[in-house]
Each structure stands twice: as structure tokens, then as C-alpha cells.
Amino acid sequence: MKKFESIKTGEKAQLTHTIRQSDIDQYVELTGDDNKIHVDQQYTSKTAFKKPVVHGMLSASFISTLIGTKLPGDGALWYQQSIKFLMPVRVGDKITVFAKVINKIKRTKTIQLSTEIYNQNNQKVITGTASVKLIEEVQPSAIQKAVKVKNNIALVIGGTGGIGKATCFQLARDGFDVAIHYYKNIESANRLKKNIEKLGNNATVVNADIKEIDQVDRMIQRVLRKLGSISVLVNCATTPIPNIKIADLEWRNMQEQYDVNIKGAFNIIKFVVPIMEENGYGKIINLITQYIEDPKPELAHYITAKSALSGFTKALATELAPKGIQVNLISPGMTDTQLLADIPEKVRLLTAAQAPLRRLASPDDIARVISFLSSEKSDYLTGETIRVNGGQVMI
């Protein structure tokens, strides 16, 4: 929650939203406003508008979202708004909502914001001025503050995958509150949340396409609102890994791997590192693959992207170490997860037989090492790669 004193005149925030038909349907159900100009294509085709127009207050409601989640955020009481509707908004339009602090009133701890909404063509559709009062929390005692500092809070990217799910459980058993990231599998994420809460830990579910920085921003803000901070980031994000011969390999195959492994990691780091810097402490753990050191054919796209992630991680480790942030890598061997579904049983058995420990890794094997790297026991490790492969690669 922002303090009144920390908010500066000229400070800005923005968010985007694409208007969907489902937004209209839900607004009509909630308010009862089924005016034909908003819902009836046949009716509006006979008017100057030609197509249904989105309810003005539906578009304007995203000013509330911006005020309540970004500027100033939690504790904001939006009590006054002047508004002008300049142009119609339609289903499919991508609106961008802007707010800027134009005045502060210290006596009442209120701020005034200019509020503007633009469509995808950079046309202003709504303008106005908002008045917002900051309702601040009662300050905790020194003892309460000390307890809060000790809280362990982990964000697990790819939390519904095999390794991600095992990691969420392991960190919860270690005493962490856990933010479970998912991309598509919300049902699995919600089940995992309930099971973690049964252990007595706080958990929250967050969604983002990590390739999209706006979605990552919203995800991180939700984690902060729900859990308060982030002390550990575990990146288990993955994408399908098809075998592709070099003769058939196209740049789009390379780009798909780069987007998840590098762009996704970069987007998350941009928001998480400042949080850890403010705390003076943090752990970042990225997952790569033993194929970097023991390459297999037809995986050039995957191995190249993971190699880039390895280099990125080590560069971060060097830069962030003086700030109390350790950044490390885990390099798993073939692990018994859903990603192996398309790998022939013969290949899996052969790989297990070739490992000195005579089995494949399990998600729990990886999660236990993540547990170590997330703990104070690893405080003198940074830039390291821990291989979890049953002895298949020894260096």
C-alpha cells in the first residue's frame, strides 16, 4: 500500500483491456441496463451508430480498476469523478486507461487525478478528473513488523506442471506462502491452492502469459496485494519440446523457445528484482536442462534457448549478489512429468538404465533441491548450476 507522502505530483499509471461481448453480458446482468443501443444489432443498424455501443460506464469502470490496483492502489477510496464521453467504444476495442496525479491535498490526504481513456487508434474516448482519498492501515508494532519480515513468500512460475506442482507443495511444507502461477490450467491451480491451504499456509493463484509484460505486471501486483512481497522466485515455465531435424527447423521454432525461456524470464525479473532489492534479500531459481552438457539430436531449438537462460542467470548472479540476491540454476535430467508423454517407453527405460542411480528423476527430486536453494542454507551460493540427473552427467 502506498503512503500519501510517497505519491508524487505527475506520477502516472495505466492499464489496458480488450472489450469482449462477455463484458457486455455481465454488465447487463449486473445492472439490468439492456438498452437496445448496447445489445441489439438490428436496432442499432438503423441508427447513426450502425453497431451496438458499449455502455459508457462499463468503459469508465476501468478507472476504478486503475485507481484501486495501481494509482494509488490498495486503500484508495474513489469518491468523486467528473467525466465526459467523447466517442463510442465497441466490442473488440482495446482501451488504455491513463491516470496522472495533478494535485495533492495534505490536510485530507486526498489526491486528484486526470483520467483519460484511449482506444487502439489512439483516439480519446473518455476524459475527466477523479478525487481519491487514501485510507491507510494502522501501523503495526515493532514486534509485528519483525514477524512480518520473517515471512517467506514464493512465486512459482509454471506452478501447475509436474515440477512446479511438487515445488509448490515442498515450499509450503517448508513454511512458505505460495503464489501459484498458471497459464491455462486454472482448475489444477485452484486444486493446488486448496491443498496448500490445508497445510496452514497462505496461497494465491495468479495467471499470466509471461511473454506479455503487461500481464506479468498485473500478476506481480496481485501477488503483492495478496501475499505482501516476494522473497523467492522459481521459474519452472516450459513449452512443448518437439523433436525437429535441423533440415526442418524454422526460426519460429527457435523463437517459441526463446520467448518462453528468455523473454518470459526477462519480463518477470524486471518486476521481481526491485522488490527483492528493497527487501535486501531474495532467491531466484531458473531451470535449464542437462542437454546443455549432454546434447541430443533434433533439440537444437530447446538446447539453444536453455543455454541462453543459463548465461542470463549467471549474468544476473554477478550483478545482483551485492544486493543480497542469489540467482542459481537447476539442471534436471529426464524427469517423469507430463512432458514425457510423447517419449517412447523404450527411450525412457534406456535413459533410466544408463543413469548410475538406475531411474529417472521425479518432480520431488527437483523440488527438494529447489527447497535447498530457497533456504538460508544456500546463502553462500550464487551463479551455480546444480545437476539433478542421477549421475548421468558428472562435472
Q: What would your notes on this structure say?
A:
By secondary structure, the protein is of the alpha/beta class. It has helices at 21-31, 36-39, 41-44, 56-69, 142-149, 162-173, 186-198, 213-227, 251-279, 300-320, 345-354, 363-374, and strands spanning 12-18, 76-85, 94-105, 110-118, 124-134, 153-157, 177-182, 203-207, 232-235, 282-287, 325-332, 385-388. The protein folds into 2 domains: 4-134, Roll (Thiol Ester Dehydrase, Chain A), CATH 3.10.129.10; 142-388, 3-Layer(aba) Sandwich (Rossmann fold), CATH 3.40.50. The strands form 2 sheets. It has a 7-stranded parallel β-sheet with strand order 8-7-6-9-10-11-12, sandwiched between helices. The chain has a 5-stranded antiparallel β-sheet with strand order 1-3-4-5-2, covered by helices on one side. Helix 6 crosses helix 12. The protein starts with 11 loop residues before the first strand and ends in a 7-residue tail after the last strand. Residues 141-150 have low confidence and may be disordered.
Proportion of helical residues: 25-40%
In order across it, which strands form the biggest sheet? Answer: 8-7-6-9-10-11-12
Element pattern in H and E = EHHHHEEEEHEHEHEHEHEHEHHE
CATH topology type of the largest domain: Rossmann fold
Mean pLDDT: 90
Give the number of domains.
2
Tally the helices: 12
Can you summarize this structure?
The chain is of the alpha/beta class. It has twelve helices and twelve strands. Helix 6 crosses helix 12 (363-374) and helix 9 (251-279) runs parallel beside helix 10 (300-320).
